[in-house]
Amino acid sequence: MDQVWNFALNLFFFLECYHFIAHALILFRVRMLPRKDLARTRYYFILDTTSVFIVNFILIGQMKIVATFQIIQHLYYFITWEKSDLAKKVVSWSSLEWQRLPKEVPHSVGFFEVIGTLFDLMVHLVNAYLLASHLTTVEVVLGIALVYTSTYMLLYNPRFAWSSPFSMEPWVERRLNPLSADDIPLTPADKLLGQTAINQDILKPVEKCN
Question: Is the dihedral of CA 23, 18, 70, 81 positive or negative?
Fold first, then answer.
């Protein structure tokens, strides 16, 4: 039983570290996907929030209130994927095409997506820290090494569409499509900042990233 428990701690330490790195790469615009590919990653939200549920409610039993908010957030996105304004916008904000929006689109349009991703990132970071306190130094080092290797193999693999928005292969470029006003809907959160709906007239075809 102790071996199973220790295996679970190591497994979810790896998963939480991986989720942290994946979110950080998107948040800081290091590795991203074309929107059409990102739209197919709906089930990642279930994997992400299942990891949080198991860590916070079963393995360590801490931060349950924070975890509940994260779980509600992810379940909402999963259920309303590509249907609700909030879900459509978070997919667009996370995509390579977002970095190609015209300068007329204010940066504040993605403010709440930044806050939401930062919240998610911090949940995974704190979970990884709490799990690490139950592991040996060797297990932590091995777990981080495995995360590094997995990140390189998946998110930096030239056969996959994960790319830097400032440097990508021609075949990835061809997968980009201009974002429409429907892809960047005005959400209730945007209205709090006094945002207005994006006018389709200012959205241009995908251009080379500056």
Answer: positive
Tell me which amino acid residue 40 is. R
On whether the CB atoms of residues 45 and 117 are closer than 8 A, the answer is no
Q: How confident is the model at residue 209 (pLDDT cuts 50, 70, 90)?
A: very low
Query: Which two structure tokens, joined as six digits, stand for 113?
Result: 């997506």
| Residue 96 β-bridge partners | none
Global pTM? Answer: 0.90
Measure CA 140 to chain center: 23
Say how far apart CA 83 and CA 57 lie, in whole Å.
30
Rounded Cα–Cα distance for residues 22 and 26 (Å): 7
pLDDT digits (tens, 9 = 90+) for 5-22: 999 999 999 999 999 999
- Torsion angles phi and psi, residue 66, rounded to 5: -60, -45
Q: What is the DSSP string of the chain?
A: -HHHHHHHHHHHHHHHHHHHHHHHHHHTTSSBB-HHHHTT-TTHHHHHHHHHHHIIIIIS---HHHHHHHHHHHHHHHHTTTTSHHHHHHHHHTBGGGGG--TTS-GGGGHHHHHHHHHHHHHHHHHHHHHHTTS-HHHHHHHHHHHHHHHHHHHS-TTSS-BBTTB--HHHHTT--PPPGGGSPPPHHHHHTT--PPPGGG--------
